[in-house]
Amino acid sequence: QVQLVESGGGSVQAGGSLRLSCTASGFRFDGSDWGWYRQGAGRKCEVVSRTTSDSSTDYAGSVKGRFTISQDVVKNLVYLQMNDLKPEDTAVYYCAAEGPSWDSDSCANSEIGYWGQGTQVTVS
After folding, report:
1. Which phi and psi (to 5°) does residue 13 adopt?
2. Cα-Cα-Cα-Cα dihedral of 111, 76, 82, 20, to 10°?
3. Which of helix, strand or coil describes residue 88?
4. Model confidence at 55, in pLDDT bands (50, 70, 90)?
5. HEC letters along 24-61
6. pLDDT tens per residue across span 64-79
7. DSSP states of 58-79 as a string?
8. What's the confidence (pLDDT) of residue 98?
9. Which bin fits 113, alpha (ψ -120 to 50), beta or left (φ > 0)?
């Protein structure tokens, strides 16, 4: 059974930084498709960044240059480093394994891939 758990969310002022972490059981990030998603109030589930098994990584245009994903292969952890945060980055952020490469209606109810429970990021 695959389980993902995110951590590191919180409240931060505009211009600040946060680093989200995601750990998995029953799934190895290394060599797999995985990514970070977010859903703000009244908005679609957005692909923030996603990497594939061949290490091809994409970022949403709204976060490019500010957000970076990385992984610790030994610890089977993945990260989302978020810098220069803006109020529009406020959302619940999700880690997903084998999730979709497209934006969708709901992160929490996605039928594709394995998802964590989400962590709230609030930027004021």
Report:
1. -80, 155
2. 70
3. helix
4. confident
5. EECCCCCCCCEEEEEECCCCCEEEEEEECCCCCEEECC
6. 999 999 999 999 999 9
7. EE-TTTTTTEEEEEETTTTEEE
8. 94
9. left
pLDDT in tens, 18-47: 999 999 999 999 999 999 999 999 999 999
Of 72, 22, 28, nearest to 48 by C-alpha is: 22
What is the number of residues in the chain? 124
Amino acid type, 71: Q
Span between the terminal Cα atoms of the chain, in Å: 37
Per-residue pLDDT reduced to its tens digit, 80-119: 999 999 999 999 999 999 999 999 999 988 899 999 999 9
CB 79 within 8 A of CB 17: no
- Name the phi and psi angles at 18, rounded to 5: -145, 150
